[in-house]
C-alpha cells in the first residue's frame, strides 16, 4: 500500500459527517450562549463583583477552547465533504504510523488532525504532556 492512503467506507464517513455536524451545531450554540454575557454585565450590581470576574474569566477560557474546537470540527467537516480521502489521515508528514489515524481514535475524536503518536509529540513539544490513561491503549 505504498503511497496510497486507506479510505474509509462511505457509510463510515457519512456517520462521521453527521457526528461532526452535530458537534459543530452544539459548539456554535455554546458560543452564542457565551456571547449573551453582556446581559449579565448590565445586571452587574446584583452580582458579587468577584464572582462576576471569575465567571467572565471562565467564560473567556471556555470560549477560546470552544473556538479552537469549533475550528477543528469545521476543518474536519470540510475535509469529509471536499477531500474524504484525507479524512483519518495524519497531517504530520513524518508520521511513524503510516499517517493512519486509527478508527478508534477517530470515533473518540472525529476532528483529530493527527494520529496518537504525532498528537502526543506535538503536545509534549508545545506544553506539558497530558498523562491520560485512556489515550494510551489506542497506540
Ligand atoms: Zn501521525
Detailed description of the structure:
- The protein has two domains: 9-84; 88-139, no CATH class.
- 63% of the residues lie in helices and 0% in strands.
- It contains six helices and no strands.
- Zinc ion is lined by residues 90, 92, 95, 97, 99, 114-115, 117-118.
- Zinc ion binds at residues 90, 92, 95, 97, 99, 114-115, 117-118.
What is this structure, in a nutshell?
It contains 6 helices and no strands.
Structural class: mainly alpha
Task: Give me the number of helical elements.
Answer: 6
Judging from the principal axes of the Cα atoms, what is the shape? flat
Q: Calculate the terminal CA-CA distance, rounded to whole Å.
A: 21 Å
Number of strands: 0
Give the mean pLDDT. Answer: 81
Order of helices and strands: HHHHHH
Main pleated-sheet profile: none
Write the layout of secondary structure elements.
Blueprint: H1 10-35, H2 37-42, H3 49-82, H4 103-108, H5 116-126, H6 133-136
Helix pairs in contact: 1-3
Zinc ion binds next to α5.
Amino acid at each position: 500500500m505504498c503511497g496510497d492512503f486507506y479510505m474509509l467506507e462511505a457509510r463510515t464517513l457519512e456517520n462521521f459527517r453527521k457526528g461532526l455536524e452535530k458537534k459543530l451545531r452544539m459548539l456554535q450554540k455554546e458560543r452564542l450562549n457565551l456571547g449573551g454575557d453582556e446581559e449579565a454585565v448590565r445586571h452587574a450590581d446584583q452580582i458579587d463583583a468577584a464572582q462576576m470576574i471569575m465567571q467572565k474569566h471562565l467564560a473567556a477560557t471556555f470560549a477560546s477552547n470552544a473556538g479552537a474546537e469549533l475550528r477543528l470540527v469545521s476543518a474536519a467537516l470540510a475535509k469529509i465533504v471536499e477531500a474524504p480521502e484525507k479524512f483519518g489521515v495524519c497531517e504530520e508528514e513524518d508520521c511513524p504510523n503510516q499517517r493512519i489515524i486509527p478508527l478508534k481514535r477517530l470515533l473518540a475524536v472525529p476532528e483529530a488532525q493527527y494520529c496518537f503518536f504525532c498528537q502526543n509529540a506535538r503536545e509534549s513539544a508545545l506544553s506539558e504532556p497530558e498523562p491520560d490513561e485512556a489515550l494510551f491503549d489506542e497506540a
